[in-house]
Write a structure and sequence with these properties.
Elements: E1 4-8, H1 17-31, E2 36-40, H2 48-53, E3 55-58, H3 64-74, E4 80-83, H4 89-97, E5 102-105, E6 114-118, E7 130-134, E8 160-164, H5 171-187, E9 190-193, H6 205-213, E10 217-220, H7 225-231, E11 236-238, H8 246-254, E12 258-260, H9 268-281, H10 283-296, H11 301-312
Parallel strand pairs: 1-2, 1-4, 2-3, 4-5, 5-6, 6-7, 8-9, 8-10, 10-11, 11-12
Length: 323
Amino acid sequence: MSVILIRADGGPTIGFGHVTRCRALARTLHELGRQVLWITRTPDVLPADVKALCEIVSVTQTDEFEALSTLARRHEAPVLIGDWKDTDPILMQRLRGTGLPVALLGNQTGAARADLIVKQRFVPQPETRGVHYLDGPEHLLLPAAFSALTPPVAVTQAQSVFVSLGGSQSELIDHCLALCEELCRQRNLEVDILRPDSRGTPHRAQDVAERMRAADFAVMAGGTSLHEAAACRLPAICLPIVPHQLDRARSWEALGFGVSIVPDTPHWESQFATAFNRFHTDVEIRQGAIEKMAASVDGLGAQRVAQFIHTTWPGEPSPPESS
C-alpha cells in the first residue's frame, strides 16, 4: 500500500508554522483515505493528533537524501510533501531524479524546483519552478477549526485584545509583549497572550480559534498565524519579527486587514501606540478589515490542496478508519 510522505520540523528556534501547515494537510489527506508517514528531526514537538493520524519516523542521519529515498522506496510513496525552513535545491533535484515527485509547501523554497509548489501568501505571484503551482488565499493551509467561519460584527469600542508573536523566543518579542501589556493596562483592556506551549508543542487549533474569535483586535507577528487571524476575521496590528515575515506583513496592510509596523525601526513604539489606540476606538477600521478578510480567506485551503494531491498522485488509497 502506497504511503504519502511528509517531511517537516518545528520548535522554538524555527517556529511551528511548518508543523501547523502539514498537520492540516495530513488530517485532510487522512479524511480522503490516504495513509501518511511523517518524517522529522523534531518528533517531540509534534502534537498528539499528528501522532494519532500519522506514522512518525525520526530522521537522525546526516544524509537526508539516503533517509528520504529509502523510506520512499520502502513505502512505495507516490509523493513527498516537504516543508523545510530552508529548502535545499540539490536535495530536491536528487530526490526527483529517483522518480519521486516532490511537493513543496511555504514561501522559503528558494531556487528549488518541484513537481508542486504551494505558496502561503495572501497575494499570489508568478512562479515557474513547479510543474504545478498553487498560490493565494484560497490555498492557505489551515486546520478545520478555521474553516468557513461567520464574520463577527465589530463592537463600538474594543474591549479585548489577542496577542500572538509566534512560537519562538527573543528579547525583541519580550519587549513587544511588554508594550502590549502596558497599552492594555492603560486602556483597561482585557489581554489574551498566546505564549509558546510549555511542552514545546503547538497549541490545539480549536483553542486558538476560540481565543481569536473572543477578541476585538489583535497584535500579531508576521508568521502564518496571520492566516488564522484572517480566517477568524480578526483585525490586527502586525509586528513582523524576522525579515522573511516582511512580505506577508506588507500584504496584510495593503489588503486592508490591519496595519504593519516593523519593530526596531525609528519611532516604531510611538507608531505602534498610535495604531493601537485607533484599533481600540475606531469601529469603522475594524469592521472594514473584517469585511475584507471575509471576502478573501475562507479557511478551506487544506481541502483544496489535499484534493489536488490526492487526484494528481492517487497511489492506492485505503479507506479511512471508522470512528
